[in-house]
Amino acid sequence: MARGRISDAVKAGRTLVSDGAWGTFLQKKGLQPGECPELWCVDRPEDVLDIAAGYIAAGADMVEADSFGATSYKLEHYGLADRVGEINEAAARISRQAAGENNWVIASVGPTGKMLLLGDVTEEQLYESFREQVVALEKGGADAICIETMTALDEACLAIRAAKENTNCEIICTFTFDLTLQGDYRTMMGISPTDAATTAVESGADIVGTNCGNGMERMIDIVKEIRAAVPETPILVHANAGLPQNVDGVDVFPDTPEDMAGMTADIVAAGANIVGGCCGTTPDHIKAIKAAL
Fold it and tell me: Could you tell me if residue 28 is inside a domain?
């Protein structure tokens, strides 16, 4: 494989660029409320390919896949739980086509919406749901599994284990943090960046980090805490284009490509090795980040 492993590239001194938002991009292309985004990989593959190719053209070294909500538990809301393999394999294959041989596919795996704490699912059931998804993503051509937007450590660790035990993919795990009234950062389940990063690494993650929930400015302090906790582990950041503002009933993300580019040096200085975007970011944001690096 000409591209090698992402973590090896980072350890060799490279600072890499990831892609930007998928959900808001799909909405711009016509995704309707209540429609399954991941089914577009089967029904509208050219539109999905256009998103992935747009980020590669903007200079991204890696691209995700339209697979964030493609566990059986998420797909069952659309009556698609029996199509997990088909949808995930298609998602990874589309991104593989866009990425070519020199760029990486980091296929997205999001939360299931189920909580072990409430007893509405068992560890075995969660593990099996993640296993089914990640096996299909690897089959479609994923280089890495990007477990993202996590808030609960138990769910994140089960996803990591499912990927580690059933694929040869690198494993990325990122969490979403909120600023508390006390001035520190916690996930919705009360997990600190320190605990999230150290536990993810102990569970087998090759790369850790943070995504969504914050713009680049707030991500700086989160990355500093993660870097202090795991000094040798590559860190990935997918920041929103600022904090959303509701304008006439529509969420608008205020940070321009120039705004995000202007903070890129600071996020790298804080310890980030891979920089990309989440909600509200576009190929123009990624192009500006690439230029800043």
Answer: yes
